[in-house]
Structures are given as C-alpha cells and as structure tokens.
Amino acid sequence: MEPGVFWLTVSFGLHIVLVNLGVGISIVAPLLRIMALRRGDERLDREAYTLTRFYAATYALGGVFGTAFTVYLFSYYPSFTSLLGRIALYNYALAIMALVAHFLSLTLFYYGWSRLPPRIHTASGIALAASALLIVLGFRSVFAQLSSPVGVDLATATVTNPLEALLGNPLLPPLYLKSIAAAITATLVAVAGWHALRGEEGLARLYLKPALAGLVVVLLAGAWYGLELRRVEYKFNNIFGGLGLGGEPSLDLSWLLLLKILLWGIQLAGVTVALHKGVARARRLLAIAALSALVAIPAGEYLNAYSQYPYFIPPSEAGVGDERLARILNLLSPNINTRSELLQLITVTSTTILLAAAALYLAVTRAGLEAKNRPGH
Amino acid sequence: MELGEMISMLIDQWKSYPRPAERLISAIGIDVHWTILQYVMGLPFMAFIAQIIYLKTRDRFWLDLAKTLVKGFVIVFAVGAATGTTAEFGLILLWPKFLEVGGKFIFFPFYAEIYAFMMEVIFVYFLYYGWSRVGDKARLLLTALVFIGAWYSGAMIMAVNSYMVTPTGLEPAYDPDTGAMLYNQGYPKLELAIPANITAALDAGWLAENHVDIVGAGDGYTVAKVPAKIVYRLFWEASHNYTLSQSILWQGVKEEYRESLAQVPVGDVVDWILYQTTSVYDPLLYPLKSPSWPASVVHVTGAALAVSGYTVLGAYALRLLTGTGNREKALKALRFAALYTLAVMLVQGFISGHEIGVEVAHYNPEKFAAMEGTSRQIISITRDLTGGLGEKLAAFLAYGSPDKPLPNYDSIPRDWCSFPGAPIADCRPPLLIHYAYYTKISLAMALGAYTLALAALLARGRIPGKGMLAAAALSPLVAHTVSFLGWLVREAGRKPFTVYGVFTPAEAGNPAGPNMLQLALVGAYLVAMLLILAWASYRFLWKAGGEG
Predict the structure, then answer these.
(1) Is A104 on the interface with B (CB under 8 A)?
(2) pLDDT, one tens digit for every residue, chain A (377 residues)
(3) Residue A120: its chain B contacts at CB < 8 A?
(4) B33 and chain A: CB distance < 8 Å anywhere?
(5) Where are the domains of chain B?
(6) Contact B541, B71 (CB under 8 A)
(7) Side-chain half-sphere CA neighbours of B243 within 13 A
(8) At B267, which helix (H) or strand (E)?
(9) Which end of chain A has fewer CB atoms < 10 Å from its terminal CB, N or C?
(10) Which of B89, B283, B533 is facing A96, going by the closest CB pair?
C-alpha cells in the first residue's frame, strides 16, 4: 500500500470514530440538559454533564487526527489538495465557520454549567448541536462532490455554481441523513452499552428506544444512499457488484458492506433484547452492540471512501481525459519528495509514541468519565 | 510631501500588491490564531517554573498559581485549535497554489508539526484532567511536554515562514561594505540545482547574459545562482499554463532542442528544477535550511513568552487594583510575573531581536530599507527625527559599523522583479512598515523600561502604587500590539512576494476565490468569535477566580 494512503486511512479512521461520537454527544447532551431542566431531574443533568465532559476531554484528540489527515493529504497529494481547495471552496468555508462556532459553544456549554443562567446555557447547547449539524453538512457535501461533482469545472478547477456545488449534489441528502443518523445512533448504543457494563440499568434504558429508532433510520437512509449511488457506477459496482447487484467491481468491497450489515444487526439485536428482557439480562449483548457501533463507524466510512479507490474522484465522474488531471486524481501518484524512508520512520515512531501517550491519558484520566462534581455543585 | 498625501501614498502602495482583500482576511485569521497561540506557548512555561519553585519550597501558593495558569491555557487552547483549523483551511481555500508548491517542496515542517500538535493535545488534556491523579514530578513532566510541544510546533511553522521570508540559497542584492545595489547584476539570486538535461538544452551564452551563474555540478545536475527575477517569471508563466515556446527560457533553448521542447509545460520544468534542488539540499530539511530560521524561532517564541508574562502581570495587577481575590497572593504572583517578564524582555531585546535584525539587514535589504525609512518620499524617523543619529545606530546594529550606508529605498528599482504582464507595479516593500516598525520598537522599549522599574520596586519589597498597577493592567494590550506589529512588519515587509523572490499572492491565490463581501463577512465573523472568547475568558477565568 502507498504510505500516503496508509496514513490517510489511519488518521481518518481515528478521526471519524471520535467525530461521530462528538456529533452524537453534541445533539444528545443538550437534549438531556433541556429535559433535566424541564423535569428538574438531577440524574439527567449529571448524565448530560458527564457526556459533555467526555466530549470536552476527547474532542481535541478527534480534531488532531483530522488535522493530521489534512496534513498527510497536503504532503502526499499537494496538487489534489490545491484542486480541492478550489472546487470545494464554499463547502469547506461552511464547515470551518461552523467549526469555530462549535468550539466556542462547547467551551460555553461545558464551562458554563451551573455558572451561566439556564437560558443562556441552553442556548449554548443549541448552538453546540446546530454547529455540529452544519459541520457535518459542510464536510459531507465535500464527500458528495468527491463522489460525483456538480456545479464545478474540474478542468479549470473552478466553481461554476456555488449553490449547486454546496447543496445541489443529489448524493448529499441521503448521505447527510445517513451520517447524522449513524452518528447519533452509534453514540446512543455506545453510551447504553457503557452504562450496562457499569450496572447502571436505568441510565442504559434511557437510550434504548431512541437507539432503536435510530437504527431504523440508518437502515432506510443507507438504502436511499445505495439507490442514489447507482448514478456513480464505479462506486456502486465496487460496493454492490460482488453481491451480483451491479457490474463487475474494480475493487470488490461487498465484504465490507456485509460486515457493516452484520454490525448493524448486532446493534439491533442488543438493543431489542435489552428492551424486551431488561438491561441486566442483556448486559453482555449490549456491550457487544456498543463495540459493534464503534466498529461500524470506520467500516461505513472506509466503504464509502475506498469504493472509489485508487481515485479521489472516480474517472467516470471527473469526465476529462487530461493526463495531468488524471495524475492529480490518482492516489497512486503521490508527491515524490515523500518517498523517503526517513519520513516513514519519523511517521511510524512519532505516531506510535503519541498513540501510546494518548492511551495512557485516556486510562489515567478515564477520558473525563469519572466525573467530578459539576461546577457550582 | 504633506502628511495627508503621504498617508494616502502609503495606503495606495500597500493596496497595489496583489489580492489585498485575501491578504487582509488571512492576516485577521492568522492573527486571531497567533493571539491565542502565544498563551499556549507561554503559560505552560510559566506553570512549569511555578511548579519548580513549588517543588523547592513546598509553598502551596506556587502549585495553585501553576493550576490557574494551566486552566487559563486549557480554555484558550481549545479555541486555539479551532482557529488553527480555520487558518489551515484558510490556506487551502484562499492560497491553494501556495499550498501546492509548499506541499511539493517545503511540506516537511508542516508534516512534523502535526506531531507537535498531537503532543500538545494529548499532554494539555492529560495535564488538566490528570492534575490531581498524578504525582508532583509527573505533573512537572507533563507541563514540560506541553510547552515543548507548543515550542516545537512554533518552530516548525516558523521554518515555513522563514523560508517564505528568506528562501534557502538566497543571495541578497545589497553590499553594505560598498553600498552597491546589485540588481543590475541579476541579484537577488537563488541557488538552485538544475537537472543536467535542462541545462544541456540551454545556451551558455544566454545563461551568462541573463546573469545565471553556474557554480557547480553534481550527479545529473548543475548548481546555478539564478536571478529571482527569472525564478519569479517562471512561476508566473507556470501559473498561466505557459509552454516552453511561450516562456522566457525559449530565447535560451538551443536550436536542436526546440522542436521536442516547444510544448513542454513551464510548470513541469519548474517542478523538475525544484525537485532536483530539494533532492540536493535534502527533501525533508530543505526549508529548515533557511538562514533566518534560528533567529526567527527564538524571537517569536520570546514574543509569546512575553505576551503571556504581561497577561499574567496585568491580571494580578487588576486584582490588586479592584481589590478582588487574596491581596497577598496577588502581590506574590505579580512579583513572579514581573521578574519572569523582565528576563524574557532582556533576551528579546538584546539577543534575539538583534539577531533577527541582522538577518533582515543582510538577506532582505529592501525590507530593511523600508523598515528604516530610507526613502525621501516619507518623513523618516530614523533620518529626519534624529538628525541622522538613527541611521548611524541602525548601521552599527545591523552591520557592526556606524559608517556603513543603509540601503537607499529610492535607489531600489521599482521594477527589479517585474516584466511585461506581471501583476506587480512596485517590487519594493510598503513604506508603511517604517512606522509600524518604529511604533513597535518604541512600545517594546517603553514596556522594557516599565518592567525593569516594576521588577526593581517589587524586588525591594515595595508595593506598587495605583499608577504602576494601572500600567501593568494595560501591559497585555501593549504587548499584544508589539507582537502584532512585529508580524505586520515581517509579513508586509515581504511584499510584493509570498515567497521572497519566487512568487507573489497573485500566483499563490485561488483564481476563483471569494469576493470582497464574502471575505468581509468571514472577517467580521472571526472577530465576533474572538470577542465571545474574550467574554468567556472573563466569565470563567476572571470572575470565577475572583469568586474563588
């Protein structure tokens, strides 16, 4: 495997798991907080705070892997990064402006607990959720554009129709819905499993019904996305071709699709059994479901990204025969200055040491989950 | 020239360089990030010193002070990470062509910086969330890892920036011993390794006529000192998708090569030369060999340490002025901050500031001329307001002799880098930086003198009066202004270039970038976010601290 592809895969995988949990918490925690305030429920308030504290303790870790991904992209594929900056100008602009608001609202929501007046605090929670939704919209619109660009001219690397490039991609609605639903559902299942493991049955039960609904939405949105993908033959064949549903795949990834369906099934089984037989009797199954939820995140992302391998944009969608552009869009043509053994040694060593340090950090601090009292309590 | 006319001329000159709106929005974005970054570089270092004192004295005050400092930078670090991401994407969106060239040839500092960022993220949160879960020595180690990560990060970013200011292999166009301007000899020049097949296709007479000096050779390449004017022109041609038959090089291509080379893109030729050059220098270390890198790293790190010191000084002075919190503790913290800041300012003023000045004078004579205001078009502080003494002092500091001449701004050809079709009307840096530079120097000297007086007062066990405390409370703003002006001089002083002598914002930018309104909205948005951050810091640090 190309070193660039390998490091992009590693950093993206780590980034996307933490980001999905972050998006889920950004929506779930403010909802819990609002419910807690309305009902005067101390237990819900503590739960919302614990989740927020976990997010505050880990979000920068997710962010740093995202930055690593961007830096690897720019180092190994500088010409593609330049092209992307030009054709996804408005998509990235939306995402990064939302990102700034997200960080600020997280700061206010977390540090302002019991310090800010409830209305302002609730508003910061809503801003947290809204900015998370906008970040996902921005980045997902980039993914949709990479699958099948619209509103841009690749040959001149220009945006011809900003609105269409930002929101007009037909792949965007199902991809966006699926992404949001999957992030929330994975978070709900993971948190339910975590509570089940700790014997906190009441708290685990809190998440089960929403998780079940989420799993149904994920299935429907996934099917919708699959249907829309028929317009991108290259991707569709790589995902479904091995199952006899499309043409001959260039890279058969149907096994990854089956794995994803299996992981979804485990989550469904865990949640359903826990709902019917009680959390205590389904503790192990729920824990396995939580693990499946976490594994399903990178599985789904890799399936979507690798289905156009080795291209950043499938050749049929790029629609040009330009040799230089074809080289830019090919993952197998990296920057030749990165073909240095020393660079790989530095990357392996630094990544290993820092991942070990990150693991130690999560172990020692328990990722902030051993919650201190909330400010003011 | 009247003052009004002069101001108008200065602004027009600044605006005349390509892409003023994008430059302004980038400046806002990066400066917002830098405003925050200074605390990430400085506060952990102060917390580290406080913990060392705690380990020696076992006085609980020092541990509490360290914890307050840590809390301070954890809050700003989160937003710093956000603004850093904004700056990063700003580069991709506004300057994609710069990123493409940077990614190919000077990517390594960015690449290495990611590990610095990981270090910061892991150890900042490890320190904060693990504060009471680890022992004193482990906490000290974690604090050290935090500031080392931040300094390492700063050093890598400065490697890229130093390369932009002083590209590796740069030979300047001014000889201070004779006062001669060397533009008519093709200077400034860049030392490049040119693949042998390219030099073989070029006529030696044409190369000599165009001041391309062949100075060596290696396995498959020729080492040449190439005029920046030619390098810049080739980049400009590459950005316009020229082929060799349309290029300036075409005049030098030998007859027998013409047919086969006519349709070769200039962009490919530029890539081959730069890949060969980076390969000879070292593909990874090429930008780190910029001659201005070491002094720049020390000076910029020092600026961050100073701003952090003044902020702590200002915060505790404000506590004493308003009577909030514990007075005795505030006084002790004030004394610590004053002594720390004094030490930093001494290094900044007498060592790193001097070194960076010497580098600028040597490698960037155009910028030096603008900084010292050696033009007759403006009222020069160096010349007109000091009776010439300022020029002699500047020459002494820069060249070691008061008798050596400063480069005369008006003698630098306006068009030394230009050619027909180039987007540059004036190849000289903006004279505006003369005033920015002297405002910066004056404020820095005033800060230094004030800090010396305050530290002397506190060292003698005396309590500063209200005036002194009010000045301390204002000092963070002044320190930020000094730091900002330093960057303004550094960045604007490189204009019209993005990478000195190589390419300008016209070639670095996004040909289909955002319009003025969109840029203005983004700028306003970033400023609003900074104001919310300031409010959050006040609410959660200042008020919470006072209550506690």
Answers:
(1) yes
(2) 899 999 999 999 999 999 999 999 999 999 999 999 999 999 999 999 999 999 988 888 888 888 899 999 999 999 999 899 889 989 998 998 898 889 889 988 998 898 888 998 999 999 999 999 999 999 999 999 999 999 999 888 899 999 999 999 999 999 999 999 999 999 999 999 999 999 999 999 999 999 999 999 999 999 999 999 999 999 999 999 999 998 999 999 999 999 999 999 999 999 999 999 999 999 999 999 999 999 999 999 999 999 999 999 988 887 766 778 888 999 999 999 998 899 999 999 999 998 898 888 888 876 666 555 454 44
(3) none
(4) no
(5) 7-167+290-547, 174-288
(6) yes
(7) 8
(8) helix B266-281
(9) N
(10) B89
Give B78 to chain A, closest Cα distance, Å: 7
Taking only residues 55 to 94 of chain A, the set having a beta carbon closer than 8 angstroms to any beta carbon of chain B reads 56-57, 59-61, 63-64, 66-68, 70-72, 74-75, 77-79, 81-86, 89, 92-93
Across the interface, which of B81, B89, B133 has its CB nearest the CB of A63? B81
Output the six-digit token pair for B130. Answer: 């693990």
> Which own/partner contact pairs does B525-529 have at CB distance under 8 Å and 24+ positions apart?
B525/A97, B525/A100, B526/A100, B526/B28, B526/B29, B526/B32, B526/B83, B526/B86, B527/B28, B527/B32, B529/A100, B529/A101, B529/A104, B529/B32, B529/B79, B529/B83
Q: What percent helix, strand, coil does chain B show, rounded to 5?
A: 70, 5, 20
